[in-house]
């Protein structure tokens, strides 16, 4: 039997990057791209590398170009770390695993290192595949924590729970990571956003702006731990914006939602350095009248637009600077 599990990229609609700082966020998955895991029984445990794990290149120039796009690591390290954490979780929780081995391979077309949670999509899909293979049940809240532990504890990647919660629930979700609840039970308050119509949304991303979240968040984390008042105030403002955005979604106040999306980015710019190419995307979007903020750590933006004329203008202007634009197909998986 071949097991196939799929996970999707995540877009943060509001609140980021406060999810790693006891903040609040709203996020959803979209199915325009996906990461796929295939897993099947085999005599030995084998991890099959994908294209970005290649060690053979046409030239030094080709190798440098790939490193610039994808970093120094492909997906094999993600699978190794996921398998290790899954095994350890089962042992720590007295979950018996039979002695079968498996072969696991992945494939992903999620644009890499652009703040779309491509790495955690691979890890989440691999966790779900192993859960199915060994018939192990893990609550979605705990699964999100387990995926985060793969990145933070095994791979030393700075990250928050937001991506992993969205990918565990596979539904648009409001997340409250308040400190009291997090310390009491280890995960936040998660509300699936059901029976709510989202405004017209776009996502724009550039393939030449590849920068992992660990690069973006390291300085912010340091300032947060030092009690930097500017950073602490920004986190409180992002939390307030998330509450406002949640109410605006429920009431259908799309104009107000666009305004808080813009404010979310403006606060971010006041506390973090923004690269020229990232700022360029924001400027282009706002010149067309669309709202704009990062979907995650950078390299991709999200926002609202008023009508098809505005969307086409936005798409055309973005294409002039090598930026792709799409309408996200929001994932709503019913369990």
Features of the shown structure:
12 strands; 335 residues; four-stranded mixed beta sheet; 11 helices; 18% strand; alpha+beta; Ribosomal Protein S5, domain 2; 2 domains
Overview of this protein structure:
This protein is of the alpha+beta class and 335 residues long. The chain folds into two domains: 2-192, Ribosomal Protein S5, domain 2 (2-Layer Sandwich), CATH 3.30.230.10; 201-326, Alpha-Beta Plaits (2-Layer Sandwich), CATH 3.30.70. Helices cover 46% and strands 18% of the residues. It is built from eleven helices and twelve strands. It has a four-stranded mixed beta sheet with strand order 1-4-6-5. The longest helix is centred in the C-terminal third of the chain and has 23 residues, at 229-251. The protein is globular, with a radius of gyration of 20 Å.
């Amino acid at each position: 039997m071949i097991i196939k599990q799929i996970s999707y990229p995540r877009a943060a609609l509001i609140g980021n990057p406060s999810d790693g700082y006891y903040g609040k966020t709203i996020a959803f998955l979209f199915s325009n791209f996906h990461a796929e895991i295939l897993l099947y029984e085999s005599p030995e445990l084998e991890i099959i590398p994908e294209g970005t794990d290649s060690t053979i290149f046409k030239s030094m120039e080709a190798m440098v170009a790939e490193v610039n796009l994808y970093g120094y690591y492909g997906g094999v390290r993600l699978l190794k770390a996921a398998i290790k954490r899954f095994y350890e979780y089962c042992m720590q929780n007295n979950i018996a695993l039979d002695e079968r081995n498996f072969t696991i391979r992945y494939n992903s077309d999620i644009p890499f290192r652009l703040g779309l949670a491509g790495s955690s999509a691979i890890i989440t899909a691999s966790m779900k595949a192993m859960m199915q293979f060994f018939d192990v049940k893990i609550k979605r809240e705990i699964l999100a924590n387990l995926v985060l532990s793969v990145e933070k504890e095994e791979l030393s990647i700075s990250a928050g729970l937001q991506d992993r919660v969205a990918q565990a629930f596979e539904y648009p979700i409001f997340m409250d990571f308040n400190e009291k609840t997090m310390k009491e039970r280890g995960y936040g308050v998660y509300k699936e956003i059901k029976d709510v119509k989202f405004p017209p949304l776009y996502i724009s991303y550039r393939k030449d702006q590849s920068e992992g979240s660990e690069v973006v968040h390291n300085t912010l984390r340091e300032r947060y731990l030092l009690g930097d008042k500017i950073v602490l105030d920004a986190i409180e403002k992002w939390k307030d914006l998330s509450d406002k955005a949640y109410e605006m979604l429920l009431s259908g106040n799309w104009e107000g939602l666009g305004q808080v999306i813009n404010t979310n980015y403006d606060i971010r710019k006041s506390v973090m350095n923004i690269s020229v190419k990232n700022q360029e995307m924001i400027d282009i979007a706002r010149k067309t009248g669309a709202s704009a903020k990062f979907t995650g750590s950078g390299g991709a933006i999200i926002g609202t637009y008023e009508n098809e004329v505005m969307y086409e203008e936005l798409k055309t202007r973005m294409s002039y600077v090598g930026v792709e634009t799409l309408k996200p197909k929001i994932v709503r998986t019913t369990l």
